[in-house]
Specification:
Blueprint: H1 2-28, H2 35-44, H3 50-63, H4 74-82, H5 86-102, H6 104-113, H7 123-134, H8 140-151, H9 157-174, H10 176-205, H11 210-227
Helix pairs in contact: 1-2, 2-3, 3-5, 5-6, 5-7, 7-8, 7-9, 10-11
Length: 228
């Protein structure tokens, strides 16, 4: 049985080693200490330092540093150089930015105490906490509850997300008129965004007479007034 376990572990090791070796080969051709090198280093140690990787990826995305490294888009950069999925990268960005803006003390405490992977909240949990913060159906007490679940109790993100979804559904059922108004507002905002985009495209390509473009602009203004 022990020999079987050893062989099973060995079967998985080459794939992991190949992935790490690929990143380290890229690191060898980049100046040590540069931000590009640090991103690769953080990606290699991703399991133990998602906050560090999130911070660096946010800087790369915000300042478009990837363009100076020969990549046309951020998607191409993370796929070809870092080797992580776009969805994962965006969750890392959003989770880090959320902590930086809403919970800076948690970031400072994490750095000061040099926490290991067992005590740092997973980025998926931070992403759920971000959703809780932005939900209009929830109040400060609700957010404090989910914050405690993530930061102090270390609940699994799936459990927290399930609880969050149930609470939002409960609040919507308790306030049907408010939920209806929210849906109306969201629909109008989507319409406004579409009209703005189409108006710009039509105006640049001169696809419609100027008078109709002007009427479209007036319609957009009226919708904006309705929202405000």
């Amino acid at each position: 049985m022990e020999r079987y376990i050893e062989r099973k572990n060995e079967a998985f090791e080459p794939a992991k080693t190949k992935s790490i070796r690929g990143i380290e080969e890229k690191m060898s051709g980049i100046a040590a200490g540069s931000i590009r090198y640090q991103v690769l280093e953080s990606a290699r140690d991703f399991k133990n330092s998602w906050i560090g990787l999130g911070r660096l990826l946010y800087a790369v995305w915000k300042d478009k540093l990837y363009r100076g490294w020969g990549f046309l888009t951020f998607d191409a950069y993370i796929k070809q150089e870092i080797g992580i999925k776009k969805m994962t990268a965006m969750k890392l960005l959003r989770s880090y930015y959320f902590l930086e803006q809403q919970e800076p003390q948690y970031l400072k405490a994490s750095a000061a105490q040099d926490r290991d992977v067992a005590t740092i909240a997973a980025y998926e949990s931070i992403d759920v906490l971000r959703l809780a913060k932005n939900k209009s159906e929830l109040g400060q007490e609700d957010y404090a509850h989910f914050k405690q679940a993530v930061f102090e109790k270390g609940k699994d993100f799936r459990e927290v997300r399930k609880e969050l979804t149930a609470l939002i559904r409960e609040r919507k059922e308790a306030n049907p008129q408010e939920a209806l108004e929210l849906r109306r507002m969201n629909t109008v905002k989507r319409l406004l965004g579409t009209l703005r985009s189409l108006r710009q495209e039509i105006e640049v390509a001169k696809l419609m007479p100027h008078a109709l473009i002007k009427e479209t602009a007036e319609l957009i203004r009226k919708i904006e007034d309705e929202i405000s």
